[in-house]
Amino acid sequence: MASAPSGPTEIHILLSLPDIHCAGCIAGVERKLNAMPGVRGARVNLTLKRAAVTADAATDAGDLALALTRQGYRAHELDSDALVGGAVDGVGRDLLLRLGVAGFAMMNVMLLSVAVWSGAADATRDLFHWISAMIAIPTVAYSGKPFFRNAWRVSKHWRLNMDVPISVAILLAVGLSIHETALHGEHAYFDAALSLTFFLLAGRYLDHRTRAAARSAAAELTALEVPRALKFCDSGECMVPVSELKPGDLVRVLPGGRMPVDGVIETGCSDIDRSLLTGESLPVPAGPGAAVGAGEINLSGVLTVRAAAAGADSALHRLASLVAVAEQARDRYTSLADRASRIYAPVVHLLAFGAFLAWIAVSGDVRLSLNIAVAVLIITCPCALGLAVPAVTAAASGRLFRRGLLVKSATALERLAEVDAVIFDKTGVLTEGAPRLTGVSDHKVSDLALAQALGRGSSHPLAAALAEIDFEVLPGRERLGAEVQDLREFPGFGVEAEWRGQTVRLGRANWVGAVEVAGTATYLGVGERTVAIRFSDSLREGASDAVAELKRNGMEVILLSGDHPAAVADIAARTGIEAFEAKVLPEEKALYVKRLRDEGHRILMVGDGLNDTAALAAADTSISPASALDAARVVSDIVLCGGSLDPIPEAIVTARRARRRIKENFAIAAVYNAVAIPVALLGFATPLAAALAMSASSVSVSLNALRLR
């Protein structure tokens, strides 16, 4: 009897690591993961800020994420099935290969054409023409496929786009050349057809290279949803897919885990990190009766949560849907090139067809009329228009990349040039996003040492900030030994230990017995004595200067944050922002953006968290720091690679210059057509001369675009 097939011996786990930023982080994460029981291998991708782990089938992804978080590398489990796979740019490689083939064939056919121009006649000329045909026909069939495919798709529905005149011009040039060669004619235009194909592919490839958002932000958000949950079943606890949970089910959430459902805490106390969803910079205490949402992080205590909404009904999933709708609305933006093509394509066809009919009526010579019609099609072929936007976008994107801004969307610069209002998130954008001790000299070294020793027993962000203090660089004062015993954490309150025969506490003011002070602080209790240890969130480099420069450029600057009013008001005052709102929910941010757009404003949104993704997608254009969560970076048009905000005002100025260059390129193309079209219509331009004129206009457009560099 055959044995039952066994389950998989290994599993593949994806972890999101939003805070890693250097090679040291990669080494630290991989070293920690590879040392974990059951892990067979781990590789970190710094660009995607992810770790791919191969482990034994019994390995729990939550344990790996918790271990990394305790090590100082914030980690979240990703659902790999929800992600769009494949980071390889297949379309770009395909275009580049076709471009290379077209360029190689064009150079070879031009060499043969030189021999014909130099005086080759009769059989020799025909031989060179047939060799050119053998090179050109398969090359055009292969390299021109992107244009032919798109032209056929729209033609089936009786519509026109830029690819239709391109395809007609290329095919007519090749067809006319074969006809001329078969009849032993003096001229063939295979080189014209290939140069058309090459220049247009160059524009198409440049256009493709300016886009990078290959994955949907909605898919990233969905991947952040917890794929499994620990449910209370009849037989005890069992791990089940979140999709199987129903309202009323009880689930257990361990410290370091993310909430799988929207619900209410039944038992347990803990600190809840809501920063990814609401932007609150500090965790909030939560106990029985407190509402929690999917995606929030349980920091300290074990919680039992009664589900109110799960899966597609959760707030996190609704946020993903909101992002998807906003992305679709923004994708309907019509670029300058698209607007031009709507007018250009039908005019070109009418001109060529009109020239053919007119010359038939005047001369009665079909061959001459066809030559002139092809010359009109080639000379008006939208190479200059095809390069006008991609060439400028590539030059502007290169300039901004050198300043630390990565432009992802093809139309981002056009939309950025129209911006008149900038909305900033607070935590992680205007600020560093991590609490820092305020004035070490304001506290006793002995108090700080004791607080640091107590803080080692907690995963609270303020405890982590205390752990970063380097006592070796503090002023020369007596350092008091801070060896504590019996260290224990009280979730939602703080930590307690025994030190020198007395009980010491670090945590919330009412628990320690201290008087609460304004601002961000944790409280140390030593016997009857209490100490408030203050913290502040440092401004990101260049934040104040960027805000001031935006105002000088006539921008309205607004701060929207989910954090507490006092913290938001403090950052607004330090950066010089007059308009600000606090305690703003993710949906409210998106509605705020929509309201401003309805009033006629063009919005730039700068954000970094899950709570910003809907607003980032709803804005006219958006920027995220490289340290942002995957979902925020993916939905954004531009990624800020450096730590300073200084490049943001420069990006707007560069975008406006780029828009001027695009319009100048359209003007160049219009002037060229105004001169060249009458020449072709009157029969003074052969298809070869038309191809040379077309190439000259393309070079002019490219040189004008390079002025941006």
Your description of this structure?
The protein is of the alpha+beta class and 709 residues long. Among the domains are: 8-78, Alpha-Beta Plaits (2-Layer Sandwich); 90-209 and 333-392 and 657-706, no CATH class; 226-313, Calcium-transporting ATPase, cytoplasmic transduction domain A (Distorted Sandwich), CATH 2.70.150; 434-538, Calcium-transporting ATPase, cytoplasmic domain N (3-Layer(aba) Sandwich), CATH 3.40.1110. The chain has 25 helices and 26 strands. The strands form five sheets. The chain has a seven-stranded mixed beta sheet with strand order 14-26-25-24-15-22-23, with helices on both faces. A hairpin with a 2-residue loop joins strand 5 (228-233) and strand 6. Helix 7 (190-209) packs parallel to helix 13 and helix 11 runs antiparallel to helix 13 (383-402).
Helix content percent band = 40-55%
State the low-pLDDT regions, or none.
1-7, 84-88, 211-218, 476-481
| Mean pLDDT rating | 78
Biggest sheet descriptor = 7 strands, mixed
Radius of gyration: 32 Å
Please tally the β strands and state the result.
Answer: 26
What gross morphology would you assign?
A: elongated
Counting helices, strands and paired strands, the structural category is: alpha+beta
Ends distance: 74 Å
| Beta-strand fraction estimate | 15-25%
Give the number of helices. Answer: 25
